[in-house]
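TOKENISE THE FOLD
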Amino acid sequence: MIKQGIFNPRSLFISRLLSRIISPFFKLFSRRKYFSIDKLPPQKILITEYDCIGDVILVTPAIQAIKQKYPEAKIYLVVVPQIKETIEATNLVDECIPFIVPWHRKFNLKNWKNAFSLIKSLRKEKFDLSIDFNGDIRNLIFLWKVKSKISLGYDATGGNFLLTHSAGFPFHKHQLERALILLKQINIDAKFTPPKIDIFQGDFSSLKTTLKGKFKNIEVVIHPGANHSARLWPEEYWFELIEKLININTNVSVVIPPGFEEFENNLREKDFDVEIFKDDIYNFALWLRGKTILIGPDSMAVHLATALGIYALALFGSQDPKLTKPYGDHGFFLKANAICKHKKKNWRLCKECMKDLKPQMVMEKVNSIIKLIKN
């Protein structure tokens, strides 16, 4: 069994086993024509990154590298719906397609129907090149059904027979680096660079807040949300941290994600002198401009912050920060325990490890970041 912190070990074993069983039969009946990337400069490129919002942000350097290599190609990107407007504002791709992936959620007939409908419409586009960076065999089946001339992806969970170009999965590399490493299979050798999202296009008239001198006034943003409950930091810890931040004369703002209504009510009862922000991700990105530091769990918000040039501090429980920490000089992380010894429900995430990360520890890290900024 591979020692890794990305896929559920049991699911990984089963998926690889089934892949080995199916592979000979698939190859026997498959008549797929092979195309060389050098002899087929792609005019239409499909990229799929629809699992999580943060994943989309982390593959933007790879998309930029593809765009640089093939400037004349039309690039389509399939993403989670919440990030669509933000990506469209960057002009990074020609078409951004929202998609709710059905196989990562409870069964929903509508989502499955939409998936088959999307496959059908994408197939009509007759893509020259399609790419998936995830390594999940279910994503590779999706890619195979699109029937592009060249398909590229990782075979982490098996399924290399579904692709024309595949690579062994670098389990111990950061997610951003994995995407760039995959591109070497099609002769794109890009440097490891942090994600950068420009949604402003030189026009700052739509900003919701007045830009402030961030080296004079430290603007700290608290984002308590994450896509899994085991990633969350305890509410009382956030309130203790907010109080500590106010005491050192920082301007504190708190983002209220969907589903955090109780958190908002309890925050208002505390009567802290803080700004409260509630809106979609696009307006959140606009609002972040001019802020100094964002603090949050290992989730979308910390990656968005660094992509916008803002300092970010990610709070980790038992998962390995080396794989998904905020990337680049503006990204920092804090992890309580080197090894998790708690009994946990999730194979990778631990709620108790998050509790071991105390507010004073976070405050000390924030102070060191502030000192770095001022120097």
User: Anything to note?
Assistant: Residues 9-186 form a domain with the Rossmann fold fold (CATH 3.40.50.2000).
